[in-house]
Write a structure and sequence with these properties.
mainly alpha, 67 residues, 0% strand
Length: 67
């Protein structure tokens, strides 16, 4: 798996979505813990809810896993 050099977190790190969903963390607390914005957490949550962990992969990674 390739991760963009400026990415704040790898897809595994982005599983902080599960902290919010499973453990009831506030988005603001998850954002602070990961060093990202609450807006980014909200974006990741929407992708995660729509597609599961695969939704957090870079678009090029998602398309390569389909073929």
């Amino acid at each position: 798996m390739r991760v963009h050099a400026n990415a704040k977190a790898t897809p595994n790190g982005r599983l902080l979505c599960q902290w919010v969903i499973d453990q009831g963390w506030l988005r603001s607390d998850a954002a602070a813990a990961a060093g990202i914005t609450e807006r980014t957490v909200a974006k990741w949550l929407s992708w995660f809810r729509a597609e599961g962990p695969d939704g957090l992969l870079a678009p090029s990674e998602r398309w390569s896993s389909i073929t």
